[in-house]
Amino acid sequence: MTSNNRNDDALTQLYLCLRLCEQCAAECIEQGSASLANCIKLCLACADSCRLCIKAMSYGLNNSNDICQTCAQLCEDCAAECEKGEGDLMQRCAEACRKCAEMCRQMAA
User: Fold this and answer.
1) How far, in Å, CA of 24 to CA of 63, rounded?
2) Mean pLDDT of the chain
3) From 29, 34, 60, 86, which residue has the greatest number of CB atoms within 10 Å?
4) Percent of the chain residues topping a pLDDT of 90
5) Over the range 4-29, which residues count as b (16 or more CB within 10 Å of their CB) and which as e?
6) What is the reported pLDDT for 81?
7) Which residues contact 43 (CB under 8 A, 6 or more apart)?
8) What per-residue confidence (pLDDT) applies to 1?
9) Structure confidence by residue, pLDDT tens digits, 30-76
10) What angle in degrees, to the nearest 10, is found between the helix axes of 37-59 and 3-31?
């Protein structure tokens, strides 16, 4: 796989994770349960880190590796929290976060 294809795959995975995290956070907010507060916070933080990682990679910034490492950790934290949930969206979000974390670690290596 060429570097360009790898970057395109990473950007696609980051965008998917960002989108699912935002959807998951919105769904949790709609449920209005205080027990979902940590999930909402992690989903929003994960979405923001994915957005930053996408921008850093798109701009070709030299420190995108550090940003990708941080994004990977936030994705892992978010996945762990979403896996506790029962809804389909939470499970899809967790899966996307795990894949994104793996991709970010590969990009940072």
Assistant:
1) 29
2) 91
3) 29
4) 70
5) eeeeeebbebbebbbebbbbbbebbe
6) 96
7) 21, 22, 24, 25, 28, 78, 81, 82, 93
8) 43
9) 988 888 999 999 999 999 999 999 999 888 877 788 899 999 999 99
10) 160
Q: Are 67 and 100 in contact (CB under 8 A)?
A: no
Q: Which amino acid is at 23?
A: Q
Q: For residue 95, give every residue at least 6 positions away whose Cβ sits within 8 Å of its Cβ, in sequence order, or none.
A: 79
Residue pair 45/70 in contact by the 8 Å Cβ criterion? no
* Token duo for residue 81: 């929290």
Q: What pLDDT shows up at residue 62? A: 77
Both tokens assigned to 9: 């795959």
Structure tokens at 33: 């349960």
